[in-house]
Design brief:
The protein is of the alpha+beta class. Helices cover 19% and strands 36% of the residues. The strands form 2 sheets. Strands 5-6-7-8-9 form a 5-stranded antiparallel sheet. The protein is globular and about 40 Å long.
């Protein structure tokens, strides 16, 4: 399935992953929570106890986007390649919990992460191409609230965003 949407990484707050086409689906990954959204403006979906797979996915996604090398080194064996204009990184799980789900991850980029591919143990491959990158991202009040299950996240603007 080919889809389109957006990622918003807000350091210290989490990662919001929204699919707009061919259907709406959104998830926010934070250090403490995985939040699923049922509509563009709707409330968070009620979820049961945290699934260990979701916890690993959240930990990996946040570590990838924040470039948390300490955590990535604990979870993966890394193979770096770089030249003057681009870099790539292949990650192979070393921790059993991650290895049960992920076969390997490949990242490619320049100044920014441009491509992220995840091959799972079930044989699925998810490839994300990231373009139209802005820094800092502009956060509308609605988008800002997507970083909290209660929709009450106070937004910081101007130089306060990172």
């Amino acid at each position: 399935i080919e889809s389109s949407g957006r990622f918003v990484f807000w350091r210290q707050h989490g990662l919001y992953w929204e699919t707009l086409q061919p259907f709406y689906q959104a998830t926010t990954f934070t250090v403490d929570d995985v939040i699923h959204w049922n509509s563009v403006e709707g409330p968070a979906l009620e979820t049961g106890p945290e699934d260990p797979v979701q916890q690993y996915v959240s930990k990996v996604m946040l570590s990838l986007f924040s470039a948390n090398l300490e955590t990535l080194d604990k979870l993966f064996e890394s193979r770096w390649r770089s030249d003057e204009s681009a870099w790539s990184l292949e990650l192979v799980p070393v921790q059993a919990g991650v290895a049960r789900v992920i076969q390997h991850i490949r990242l490619e980029g320049d100044q920014f992460l441009r491509r992220l591919s995840v091959d799972t143990q079930s044989g699925d491959r998810n490839t994300m191409l990231l373009d139209n990158i802005t820094t800092p991202p502009s956060l509308s009040p609605l988008l800002c609230r997507r970083f909290s299950r209660k929709n009450d996240k106070a937004c910081l603007f101007a130089g306060d965003q990172d």
